[in-house]
Amino acid sequence: MIDVLFVCIHNSARSQMAEAYLNAFGKGLFKAESAGLEPGKLNQNVVKALALDGIDISGNTTKSTFDMLKKGTRYTYVVTVCDEASGQRCPFFPGSLKTFHWNIDDPSALKGDYETILPELIRIRDEVKLRVKNFITEFESYAQSRK
Fold it and tell me: Which one from 42, 50, 82, 124 is the annotated catalytic residue?
């Protein structure tokens, strides 16, 4: 099992989406978790946008990268999904083979009611979904080339 940690600022949106999609699409190969540098409150608009795609994260809680680090949790890969400056604040996780950075827009920065922001929210959701699918494909291609 390949352990992957997705990190963003508050663990309220982007990292939660990436965790959910990797666990959905990478069953049996990947185990994903997510955490934030400053854990906040789960973004309910993101919960709704994922539900539209058949993914339920309504029972998720936000977690701290530093708490995971203190527990000694090890990950094969760490993926930051926030802006580059924030991603550089991510702690180093001993044992990680590689850290990736995906610069993804923050759904929490969208202004307006749910109906107004929904198209942009879906665009961000679908970007996360595509990056996760590409991550899986790249890993599988790499694994095949090593045989």
Answer: 82
Q: How far apart are CA 36 and CA 8, in angstroms?
A: 5
Catalytic annotation, pick one of 4, 7, 8, 104: 8
Q: Burial letters for 121-142: b for 16+ Cβ neighbours within 10 Å, e otherwise?
A: beebbebbbebbeebbeebeee
**Where is 35: in which H helix or E strand?**
strand 30-36
Reported as a single tens digit per residue, the pLDDT across 102-122 is 989 989 889 999 999 999 999
Phi/psi of residue 30, nearest 5 degrees:
-120, 150
Find the helix or strand (DSSP H, E) in which 36 lies: strand 30-36
82 is catalytic: yes
Q: How far apart are CA 133 and CA 146, in angstroms?
A: 20
The 10 Å Cβ neighbour count of residue 120 is 16
* Dihedral sign, Cα of residue 139, residue 141, residue 142, residue 143: positive
pTM: 0.89
Most distant pair of Cα atoms in the chain: their distance: 51
Domains and CATH numbers, the chain: 2-145 (3.40.50.2300)
